[in-house]
Design a protein that fits this description.
transmembrane, 15-stranded parallel beta sheet, Guanylate cyclase domain-containing protein, 29 helices, alpha/beta, RLP_Defense, Nucleotide_cyclase, transmembrane helix
Amino acid sequence: MSFVGSQRLLWAVLPVSKLELLNNRLQGSINTPGFVEALQQLHSCGLTTFAIGGASFGVVGTISPQFGAFDRLQEFAIVTTNITGSIPAELGGMRALEALMLQGNYLDGTIPAELGSLPNLRVLNLGKNGFTDVGLAMHGPIPASFERLRRLVVLSLEVNSFSGALPPHMCSNMTSLNAVSLRNNNFSGSADQFGGCTLVSLDLADNGFSGPIPRPSDDSRAWVNLVMLRLSNNKFEGQLPELQLGEASVLSSIIAPGNQLTGTIPRSWTNLPWLSTVDLSTNDVGGSLPEEFAFTSRLTQLNLRNNPKLVGTISPWFRLAGSLQTFDLRNTNVNGSLPGITRAQREAGLVPEDKLCGSDAAGLARLMNLQIVNIQATDMAAKCGENNSLGSINEALPWYLKVDSHTWQVPLRDPGFNNNTDMECPRIIQREYCVNNQLPRLFDNSSLPSWSMSPSYYHYLGCRCLKGYSAAWDWAPLPSGACTVRRLQCSPEQGLDKAAVIGVSFATSVVGMLLLGYCLYVSWYGRWGLPKLKRAYDDIKKRRDGAPKSGRVSIVITDIESYSALMVAMPLIMGKAMSVHNNAMRKAAWTHYGFIIGQEGDSFIVAFREALDAVAFCLQVQQALMRADWPQELLTHQKQLDCAAAGLTPPGQLIRDSSNHSNNSTTPRLSSYSTTSVSPLPPFGPLRSISGGAANSSGGFVAMPTELINQSSSNSSRPRSPGPTQAAQRPTSISLDGTADSLTSAGTFVTAAPGSYISSTAAAAAAAGGVAASGNGAGGVEAVSAVSLLLPGLRVRMGVASGMLGDKEDCLNCKVLEVARVVSDAGSGGQVLLDSVSFGLVKDRLEELGQVGHSGYARSSRVTGWGTPRGWLARKLKRARLSAEAIVLDMGLYSIPGFGSSHALDAAQLLPDAPADSTAAAALADAGAATAAAAQQEPPAAAPAAAAAGCLRIYQILAPRLLERAHLYGNKLQLKPGSALHDLPFFAAPGTTSASLIDQLLQQVSDFGAVYKQGSGSVKGSKVMGSKVLQGVFERQQQQQQQRQQQQGSDASRQQEAAALTTYVFCSVILPAKARLALEPSVAAQVSAIVSRVLRQCLLALTNHASAAAAAAAAEAHDTGDAGSSNGVLRACGYMCREVGGDMKYLLVFHRPRFALEWCLLVQEALLWQDWPAAVLDRPGQLEHAATGLSPAAAAAAVTASAAAERDGCAPLLFRGPRIKMGVDCGIPQAVCPDHLGRADYHSNNINMAARYEAVCAQGGQILLSESYTVEVHQVGRFVVKGQPSPVDIVQEPLSVPRTH
């Protein structure tokens, strides 16, 4: 509001007697003519009070002289505004004025003498005007006319620049004056005239008054109502006046520091009953410290510091001053010791504890309101004289004081005695106090009194010199000379001369520059290639730029397992659980610079600029959910579902926990479960038992590549390529179990019926040794306990995909999002899956990802250590390694219908139509037929279906602390119907599902230190989450196997030992001599690709063949009523674990020796029929190396074996194109663990033997193995045959090999 138009406003409210415009936002000039005229009209109508201001800094202008005509106005106030100028003399015409308040403005000039003509004036407040620091304030003396203001009660001229002497007859004429505040001015002269004023408050602080301090006139009761006397920082001198009880009976504060007062403290002051504050610091007061102050019941502050003539001791009676809060005797000559017995005397039992507070022994401990005690620079000491030395600091300190050994402080200087600033002494604190005669009590840590004392009091015991100073002890008298104490003196140590200082400084500078240069070098060329500062800049830039709009992007899609079912079963509990889930997601996204670009119910879509941030986000979320405080009802419900999924207890029955394993995680451990009925669940996928069998799965489907299954059975005369097989369209999920079976081939691909619910419990039983689906034993409950420990609360699956955004694409409409959705849908709850692009971007930073904990990176920086030093310094410095790496597992290569990818499936035919008598071709044809019959598949689809699908390689990543989740999932994936497997995953390799894998993975953690330190964002615990539980399950599994072996005898033991054997095949490609000389890099790459594809497809072809045989055996057992393996199970025969493409060398492992030789023979034959480049053929366009030099008998046998050769009249084909030589050996692996590409890596001496067979002994096209291995291949086993009294050894005939060498 402004003053414009205010006249019309005031006319509208007439008549008024009081106008207050305080604490508003008024703006405008106070001397505007219209505003003054409006006030005049109001005044003529009875206005008696006008007030404006109150922090209204928009009010400006000056005080108009026209206000002097307001002769009926009683109160005129302009407070805290921005008005300037001086007070007009015309205000003296306001004859009825009782209160003139102009404080808090910017007035200057002098006080008009005309104000002394206001007969009714009671309040005059001109305080705090102008700029006193630059002299622009009200100034000048107090006019003598003020002596006529007989009715004046309050006079406030504080914080101005008034000067001069006071009017001599102020109090004699101004008989009503009660409150005077003249502080912060420049007044001088005497202040005796105030002795005759009937004052309540007198404040003369910060002026230049001199002479004696004012006191009541003789036989006067003028100060009988005086409450505060403040005389600080003047030039008063002389002795302190006596103040009797009848003269100042209600006086509470005597504040007179910074003067020149002398004499002793009058004892009459101790009789003032309301006295609470006595401040006489920085004067020249002497005499003894009156002990009568101890009996002043309301005394709270006694400040006598900086009075060197003050002597005496602290009387024990001061224990009665219960209200005392501040006791300051610094820089006085008070001597003696503190009241009360010492700590040493208390420990010796000089006074019983129950009497400690009720006698003189209590000392100052009874002052329970005490806040500040300062006895620095005094003559006080616990003991005096060389004959009274102290043995310990406990002999010096009273019992209520003690040493805080954790805090050191530099004491203040003791003038005339010692320079204490070059040492440090322990802090003295008071922890105990007394209440009446009760036992001592303890102060709260937040309310400890502050004690300051000179170290001379306790003879410098516990003090030490600062670094660079040497200590010297002696005995010296205190400044008064009355006491001698032991003193510590610290003097600077002898330093180097100037030349030495210059030399050392120069050498230090050179070394520092070298180290700085090396650090910068390592920062730029270190392990991760970016310095900390650049990384910090990049992180800030990522936060600033927001979600990616172009360039590279990494997208994470999350989903909660069984979210809909949980929301139906427990909607209220899920509301709380979703709050925990969403908080973990948002916190991790913020920590790793992610942006939530979409949220569909339980699913989050998060975009990142770096794949490292995306993967770190997933690892943090999984660990945060692992440690989250989930509702107990959700944990109970999840465990009931797990038990029902494993078939341990029918729904609705009581489920009890039989696990006795410890749980070190923060997740609540379930020791029992409620009796609430478990809602029925859809059919589960297969559940593997301890022995490696699989439970039946209705409607199961074998998801596998079929390029090599169907072989033509026609008697064609010429070799021809087999037609592509027809893939089925049934599976919704693919699960691979690579555990060896003692009687059947090892490794099973397991899928559930379309639309079925795939529970993590099934995988847990498979990994942790659960019981069969129909069992309810303790082992199954332990397996479920392991699942509940490793997957508590909500189970979130997460998929990560990376790629480049197109020109017209955004994060919500791009190919990368489609890939991320497929990858996410393939996972299970608690699993993190990556596509191949994301894996390629993070595979070299797994050690850094291993630091991710539940709240971010476990260390203060992701880039730590010395980087990768080079040269001679690399041999001198060892970079400290980080914690265990994140673990990555290759989950296989799949073709998915309808999935578009930049890497389409290569549908080239790897094998031609083989001759009718080809053993391998016949086996493959039989395998395809048997598999289709056993699995009850629908009619095969057309061949182009597989070619239309895109290929996708999937990886699984796990944090070191969630390592054992790998065994819960195995190779289980959920893919679209019709998906096919083209490269076997990690757990298809022999031995990967055994307990030895956990030992090897846990070894990574122990190699980097058993203790994972707890710090900013660190993970509590030093081991993998849940390792004790699963390890205990594995130990009991081994014990059960040993018991079964003892019961079954030596035959079962031999079978078990045979099942543990792993067969290794080391092979390499040999090119013809002419081809080696003329081979170009592009041709070599083409040859390497063909060989690699043949090796993998032959491996899958044998897998299909073994699966068909197992399915046929299961069907036959079912017809006869015997229990057998599950239908729809894909038996993995072997695994390619290493491939060196440039050298064309390969390492494969097999579950059985027979599978290894079958694969070797199939590869040797399949390589004959490939479309090799002309450069690698000695005779392009012709069959190479025909068998024309054979003997008649050998030639006749070869012709008989090949119908095509018989019809065409040519010799059988022996070699064509590159030749591959193979070395085979078998043995038990020493270790199996994932390598840097997520593939299974084996450590065994038998691998070296197989490599020697291949490199030293074998020729191109030859397969070499030891004699004992040959016997192992032929030996099938010992079986009980009907009609035979004892088991019979079954021996297989040698495999026919259609070639000689």
